Every structure is written in C-alpha cells, then in structure tokens.
Amino acid sequence: MPVNLTRNAIAMINGGDVNSKPLVQVVDIKLIGNSQERYRFLLSDSESTQHAMLATQLNEQVRTGRVKKGSIIQLIDYICSTVQNRRIIVVLNMETIIPEYEIIGNPRFLTDSDSATNKSMPNNNLEPSARSVNNRYNAQVPANNVQSFRPTIQPAYQPPPNYKIQGPIMKNEAPARIIPIAALNPYQGRWAIKARVTAKGDLRRYNNARGDGKVFSFDLLDSDGGEIRVTCFNAVVDRFYDVIEVGKVYLISKGSLKPAQKNFNHLKNEWEIFLESNSTVELCPNEDSSIPRQQFSFRPISEIENAENNSILDVIGIVITVNPSVPILRKNGMETQRRILNLKDASGKSVELTLWGDFCNKEGQKLQELIDSGFSPVLAVKAGKVNDFNGKSIGTISSTQLFIEPDCPEAQGLRDWFERVGRNTASISISKEIMPGGSKNEIRKTLSQIKDEGLGRSDKPDWVTARATVVFIKTDNFCYTACPLMIGDRQCNKKVTQSGNKRWLCDRCNQEFEECDYRYLLQVQIQDHTGLTWVTAFQESGEEILGCSAKEMYSLKYELQDDTRFGEIIRSRLFHQYLFRLKIKEELYGDEQRVKITVVKVDKVNYSAESRYLLDLITKNLPIKKQF
C-alpha cells in the first residue's frame, strides 16, 4: 500500500523549519564513533535525501529494531545544524509509523542550490490557510489504495515576554528554542533549557601548569526529569556564582557541551555544560510547579549489600542511632569531623552512614537532637558513596545532599511502615565486618606464605584461608568486660570499667549498669607444616575454639578460682585442626609497624571436602604428558 511522505520536507528543514513534524523515510543507517555509540541516518522525503544524527537517548530504538532501513518515521523534535561545513539534521525525538517499507521514489542528495530555491518558495506544507492543508491531504482520498499520514502541526514557537521583539531581527538573534535536557547534544548550534538548580558546589581554587584558577559547578533538573551538571571557570565564575541559588528556576543558553567526567559527575547524563563568556543565565521569576525540586532513585538497603565499591546511589531510611561527632586526622594532615549514623528500612536490613565535614555539625547535629528527643526521623541521602570496608556502608561526598523528613511518597511509606511494625522489627546490619568472597573465591595460603609474600602490607587488608592447628592459647587477659547496651541493631561492645559504686561505666554510651558482658580477646598460636604464627580471635571465633562462653571461663578463673577446671578446658582445646579465615593488615603500635592477623571465622575441618581440595590441587600441578 503506497505511503505519501511529506513533500519537500528535507528542503524545508534545511530552510529552518522546526514545526511541521514531517513524515520521512530512513533509507540508510550507519553506526559511527568508537568511544561513543552514535547513529547516522540518511532521511528521504521521496525526492531529496539528507544526513541526520540520532540523539543518543534514541539509540535504543535502533538497537531493538524499531527503526531500521526502510522505516517510515515522523520527526517530532528536530533541528538542522552546520557541522564541519555540512548541514546535518539532528533528530531529538521521533515516532515510528511503519517499521519496515520499501524505498519510496528515487531521491537524490539535497544540494545547497536546492535549499536556497526552497527558501524563496512559499511553504505549502505549513498552515497558511485551511485550504492549503485540505488540498494537500484530500487530493488522494478517491484512491483507495493510497495510505496517507497527516503529521501533527504545532504552532510556531512563541518567545517568552522577556524576548519581546522590538524591531527587525537579524540572523541568529532570535531566541533559541527551549528543549529538554535529555535532547542536548554537541551537534546543536543554538539551544536553551529551563531547569531548576538542585545542588550547588563550593567555590574551589586550583593551581596547575597554566596558573591559578577557580571553578564551581551546579546541577540542573527539568520538567522531563532530565539532569545535567553545569561547570564554570575563572571569569565565568565571577558572573554566575552569586546568581545561582539552589531551588530557583533559570533559563540557560549558549554553553558548550563536553563529555561528563564520570569520576566526579554522578548524574545520569553523558554530557556536561560548560558556560562561557557569551552564555546567558536568566532567573525565571515565576515558580514553575512542573519542575520538581529534587529527583531521587532510591535503592533498598538490602540491594546496597551487592552494590559496587565507590558507586554513587540514593538511599532512604529511618535513623535509629546517631553517634557523637569526633575529630579525624586525614592522610594530608588536615583535621575533619566524622559522625556515624545507622539507617534501617522495610527490606529488613540496616546500614551505617558516615557523615564527613560540615555534614556533622549541620544535618548531623539536627539528627542527634531528634534522636535524643525520642523521635526517629526519615533521612533521604542523595548521591551517597558506597564503601566496602567492614561490610558495606555509605559515606558523604562533596556532592551529597541530605534531606530530613523529606516530602515524598517514599518517605511517607517508610514512616507508615515504621509506625506500624518497623519500630519493633529487628534488622540485620550490612556494615558488619565480613570476609568478602566466601568459599567460592577463598584464597588458600600456608602460614609461611603470609610472611614470605608480605601479605597485609598494602593499603587494604588481605583475606586468606589457612588450615592450621591450635598449639598454644594465652590465658592472661583472654577476655575483657564489654558494654551490653544496644546501639540500633548492634551491641556496643566497647570496654567498660567499674566505678566506685560497683557499677559498670561505658565511656562511649556515657551510661552505667549493674551487669556487663564478657567477650573473648584470645591470643592463639597456630601451626601448619610450614611454620607458626600468632593470631587474635574475638568473641565468635573464641567460642568456637574453646567451646564455651567468655563469661563461663571468666567465672571459673576469677570468681570460682577453679584453676584446675580452667586449665583442663584450655589443654583440651589444643592440637585441634581448623580452617581459619584470616584478615591480615599492617597496623601502627607506638612507633612500630606490625602485621596483625585477626581470625574472622573458624570452621572445623571437613576431611572429605579437604581431601577433594588436595586431590584437585595435585591434579592441577601434575605435569601434562604429551602423547606421541
């Protein structure tokens, strides 16, 4: 069934048309670019053809086959730009009318003379009168075998009042079209975006080979949910730093687009705007309710457990504990503040959130006051950084934003859950010290290899598994008195001291109590066929080695003073073989660097599984005999 394409569409677009929404055909598609996926079309109106670039947000339509060679499409949003002295149609939005169709007509490539001729002719496809439109679309009605598609025609762009025309407008002086942030790309010559500032970075100064400089950035969000970062340098900083305010809406134009630096830019946009000396930033005085004040992509805490280290994400949760702010000395010698919070959500998990710098005394102090008053606030974290040290935790960075009791559906849902069941629901922390990898990726080492290979001397700890035998256990200071109070879903466990009134005092919790807890701090010597070493075993590992609790052992030695029974238990646990999962890290003791080996987990040896492991090891190391 024949299809009528929009007559002279290619020439009209080259002549400046942006409103007719023509029907054209894709006669060729080519993938170009190595570092970035981009598609170049050859578009036809059945008489002329013209090259077009597809906006990257439309790439999916090509990848899924919705648009292919021969497809009939309607251009919804488009512009014609000059790139390297060639005219290119940039397709920002389109709709597929017929996915696959034979090539219509014998189109030829549009020349400059064709485009110039079209400019002097009246545009019969736009809407000067109802009659011209009716003539165009009704002429084919009697032919039942002809299929016609009438593109939607929108009125010409009307500039806002502040662009009111005062007289003749010369070329390129008319206001640029306002387009969505998602449609921005480097192939557009002139554009404007209307967006709200959601975040503003601090003014930073730098020094490099070209001299001193200054820079600041701010993030924008438009009514379509598109986000992009804007960066200003040096003299441009002086123009716009005091103008930009978080929460205000601006009309921005005449900036250059460059690839976003993903090491510093977490927004979901491959481009970043750099404002220049001729850029314009105009405040929109009337509040635009169609542009949200902030946009979140919340992840449940249970999903953070599998998130990549250093990834940036949004999270929302109920604040259940707030620790005091403490001074921390950074590696560069500068002092900063650190405050640790605990968040929980309906996924049944909780996570530690570390606040750094000014966050500690601003939002952190407010959260502390709310918790002290007995209220557990909802906290939304925009752009938190995942850390995999001691399990998974979240930390603030310079671009992080914190929202206490935010006005959003997720916060309301979380509050309802907490008031109904969440307050009394236990949660499992994903921030506890765990051994990454597990048995699937465990690294086996002998005790001599730990020393010979210098394990633990890098910036991060080494995690290994060793099969060894317990040969000696120190009985002096084998346990310590610990705080039994709960901080959120975790026990404090800090060492406590006995005050004059025979009550126990925790400096961390600043509370006294009648009974304390007892926790193992065992110093154990282990040995294998290659050597021996000292390791430290804490509570769970100590219980596995000794077979009873620290409180029982403390009672035997210090309360009942039954040294005989105490000694029997110690001797009975010697010369037992275990699989030790070890954390190895160099630490500073006084002025001396020492490698500390901590037992993370102790398992009894499964001799069947161990035999299979050794057989596999032998098989892998046997030389392969060649067959002749």
Account of the 3D structure:
With 628 residues, this protein is α+β, with helices and mostly antiparallel strands. 18% of the residues lie in helices and 37% in strands. It has 14 helices and 32 strands. The strands form seven sheets. It has a five-stranded mixed beta barrel with strand order 1-2-3-5-4. The protein has a five-stranded mixed β-barrel with strand order 7-9-10-12-11. Strands 13-15-16-18-17 form a five-stranded mixed barrel. The longest helix is centred in the C-terminal third of the chain and has 15 residues, at 607-621. The protein is elongated, with a radius of gyration of 35 Å. The model is unreliable at 119-172 and 433-441 (pLDDT under 50).
Strand adjacency order, main sheet: 1-2-3-5-4
Give the helix proportion (percent range).
10-25%
What is the overall pLDDT average? Answer: 82
- Poorly predicted residue ranges: 119-172, 433-441
How far from one another are the termini?
69 Å
Q: How many β-strand stretches?
A: 32
User: Which oligomeric state applies?
Assistant: single chain
Classify the secondary structure makeup into a structural class: alpha+beta
The share of residues in extended strands comes to 35-45%
The rounded Rg comes to 35 Å
Largest sheet: 5 strands, mixed, barrel
Please describe the topology of this protein.
Elements lengths: L8 H6 L8 E10 L5 E7 L3 E7 L4 H5 L8 E12 L2 E13 L9 E2 L2 H9 L9 H9 L53 E9 L3 E5 L2 E11 L5 E7 L1 H6 L8 E11 L11 E13 L17 H4 L7 E11 L3 E4 L5 E10 L4 E8 L1 H4 L1 H10 L5 E10 L5 E3 L5 E4 L4 H12 L7 E2 L17 H6 L9 E12 L5 E4 L3 E2 L2 E2 L5 E2 L5 E3 L4 E3 L3 E4 L1 E7 L2 E7 L1 H8 L3 H10 L3 H10 L4 E13 L2 E13 L2 H15 L7
Parallel strand pairs: 3-5, 3-6, 10-12, 16-18, 16-20, 30-32
Antiparallel strand pairs: 1-2, 1-4, 2-3, 4-5, 7-9, 7-11, 8-9, 9-10, 11-12, 13-15, 13-17, 14-15, 15-16, 17-18, 17-19, 21-29, 21-31, 22-28, 23-24, 25-26, 26-27, 29-30, 31-32
